[in-house]
Amino acid sequence: MDTPCFELKGSLFTLSVLQLFDNDLELLKEQLQKRIQMAPAFFNHTPFVIDLHELPEDKQDLDFVALKELLLSLSIIPVGVKGADKSLFPKLEAAHLAILAEAKTSAQKKTIIEPESKPEHEPEHEPETVPEAEKKEQPKTPETQQTPARRPAKIVKQTIRSGQQVYAPGGDLVVIGSVSAGAEILADDNIHIYGTIRGRALAGVRGDQSAAIFCHCLQAELSSIAGIYLLSDDLPEDKIGTSVQIYLENEKLQIESI
Q: In this structure, are residues 70 and 25 in contact, taking their beta carbons and an 8 Å threshold?
């Protein structure tokens, strides 16, 4: 038997999101060029997902081939599109862009479980005739069965140096130290930084929109929750260098002092 020359594996990669509000490609190019001048290293050969959720229906008839060529000319790598109507799928396939499914939010997961709860017309108390031993043998509720085990927080007691990456799968990441410029920290849930964050912090990387970032001193190159991010130039001046929490509300990052 021939030795296999490849192996398929599941993995996790950080993808930035380009959310479109208009289909004017010339305007998009002009504004992207200005943003790239502010942070050229961030955009250089960076994979991006194109998000059409905020694009009006009458403007979704995009030339995706031209859009892809535009992004590639700016050294941005478009890997796929989310929020597209099914009528656009043939155009996306013709442009060789992946069609990305939506990540489930915590609210969506709850909706799946709720129909399994006890209907309102059922009695609030169990019949007294049910033996106590039989009650103990009853199966767990659907909510108990479907709730995944949460991993303990990953705690790092040192400064994260430039070029290093730390990831906390299935739980929170706690950094007792600082995060240097050029370093990257990621977590499936929340991120806590008891120091200065100068690098990149990405919480909710598997799509958890309820995740948050807490830090003692905000100077981040990039802050992201569930793929929605802010660059250093987007940070409010009165929040830079202060203790803050960053969370997602109505598809936008909010920054509050703590």
A: yes
Q: Is the pLDDT of residue 198 over 90?
A: yes
The 10s digit of each residue's pLDDT in 202-253 is 999 888 999 999 999 999 999 999 888 888 888 999 999 999 999 999 889 9
**Structure pTM?**
0.53
What distances in angstroms separate CA 219 from CA 148, 236, 256, one per listed residue? 34, 11, 14
Cα gap 161→179, rounded to integer Å: 7
Residues 6+ apart with CB under 8 A from 69: none
Q: Which long-range contacts (CB under 8 A, 24 or more apart) does 155-161 make?
A: 159/195, 160/185, 160/199
**Taking a C-beta distance cutoff of 8 angstroms, is the pair 244, 201 a contact?**
no
Beta bridge partners of 167: 186
- For residue 155, give both structure tokens: 């705690």
Mean pLDDT of the chain: 81
Which contacts of 85-93 are long-range, i.e. CB under 8 A and separated by 24 or more positions?
A: 85/57, 85/60, 88/52, 88/60, 88/62, 88/64, 91/62, 91/64, 92/64
> Which domains does the chain show, CATH number per domain?
16-99 (3.30.70.260), 154-257 (2.160.20.70)
Structure confidence by residue, pLDDT tens digits, 31-73: 999 878 766 766 778 888 999 988 998 888 889 999 999 999 9
Terminal Cα distance for the chain, rounded: 62
